Structure formats: structure tokens, C-alpha cells
């Protein structure tokens, strides 16, 4: 959904922000793949580096590492302050990146704020799900992975 007269797809911004809240490195990896595949155009923007091969490889490696580490009992709580800051920054980066290149600066920064807010909300929702679900811990973690990946794919597909 785009607000009247605006070029930003806020549904996609909220979705990619939520992905970053569930899996902090998956949002940037998904965005980097979309930039590399020319689905998102960041040429001439401060985030053009997301389309580089090294950004894609690094973000994908970090995302896979996080998917694995998330299942380990020694992994810190996602609600600790450092984790929340990383998730919010990831959501902001992704929100800014998927706002249209021709969007105004205020729209881009608004998208960053929306992405960060969605990341924080999804972090809380994911934590609540993990605490309250009757699923075994591994099944809950895998379900959350599936939601994050499907939401990321839908966010990128919805970009017009």
C-alpha cells in the first residue's frame, strides 16, 4: 500500500523491517539480493554498495550464521539492548533501502523509521511467540525462520 502521492510502499517497508526484527541479518541479505538482481535500484544513493557481490556474500553468510546460532542454547536473548539496537538498525537500513530511489529524503528517512519500528515490534512478537508456544523449541525457531523468509520474499515481490 502506498500513501496517496507518495512513492514508498509502506507495506513492504513494514514487512522487511519485521524480517529484520525476527532475523537481524536476513533483512539486509534479502535486500542485498534484490539490489544485486536489479529488483531494487540504489544507484546513486548512499546504499548503492548493497548491490555489490561482496555485500551479498557477506550478508548471506551472516544471515545463515544467524539462522544456525539462533538454535543454540547459548544465544543471547533478542530483547537485550545490544540485540534490539542491531535489529532496529537493520530494519532502518532495509526500510531506507526499499524506499524508491526517487523518493524524497523525508520519505526515505520516514521509511527508515518505519523499518526500525517494525523490527522492534517483530522482535517483541517473536520473543513472545517463543515464550508462549507449545511447540518444541526447535520447531518454534524453524517456524519463525519460515515466517521471516516468506515475509521477506513477499516484501520484495510487492515492490512496484
Notes on the structure:
The structure is a single chain. By secondary structure, the protein is mostly helical. It has one domain (10-157). It contains 6 helices and no strands. The protein has helices at residues 10-22, 26-36, 53-69, 81-98, 105-132, 137-157. Helix 1 (10-22) crosses helix 2 (26-36) and helix 1 runs antiparallel to helix 4. The longest helix has 28 residues, at 105-132.
What is the average of the pLDDT values?
Answer: 92
Helix content: 55-70%
Radius of gyration, in Å, reads 15 Å
DSSP summary, beta strand count: 0
Order of helices and strands: HHHHHH
Largest sheet: none
Structural class: mainly alpha
The number of helical runs is 6
Overall number of domains: 1
Question: What descriptors fit this protein?
Answer:
160 residues; mainly alpha; 6 helices; globular
Summarize the structure.
It is built from six helices and no strands. It is mainly α. It has one domain (10-157).
Describe how the helices and strands are arranged:
Elements: H1 10-22, H2 26-36, H3 53-69, H4 81-98, H5 105-132, H6 137-157
Helix pairs in contact: 1-2, 1-4, 1-5, 1-6, 2-3, 2-6, 4-5
Amino acid at each position: 500500500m502506498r500513501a496517496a502521492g507518495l512513492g514508498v510502499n509502506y507495506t513492504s517497508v513494514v514487512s522487511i523491517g519485521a524480517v529484520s526484527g525476527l532475523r537481524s541479518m536476513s533483512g539486509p541479505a534479502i535486500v542485498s539480493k534484490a539490489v544485486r538482481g536489479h529488483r531494487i535500484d540504489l544507484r546513486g544513493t548512499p546504499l548503492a554498495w548493497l548491490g555489490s557481490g561482496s555485500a551479498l556474500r557477506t550478508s548471506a553468510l551472516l544471515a545463515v550464521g544467524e539462522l544456525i546460532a539462533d538454535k543454540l542454547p547459548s544465544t543471547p536473548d533478542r530483547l537485550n539492548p545490544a540485540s534490539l539496537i542491531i535489529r532496529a538498525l537493520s530494519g532502518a537500513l532495509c526500510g531506507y533501502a526499499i524506499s524508491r530511489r526517487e523518493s524524497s529524503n523525508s520519505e526515505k528517512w520516514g521509511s527508515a523509521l518505519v523499518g526500525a519500528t517494525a523490527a522492534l515490534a517483530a522482535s517483541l512478537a517473536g520473543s513472545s511467540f517463543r515464550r508462549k508456544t507449545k511447540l518444541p523449541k526447535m520447531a518454534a525457531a524453524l517456524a519463525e525462520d519460515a515466517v521471516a523468509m516468506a515475509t521477506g520474499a513477499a516484501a520484495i515481490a510487492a515492490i512496484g
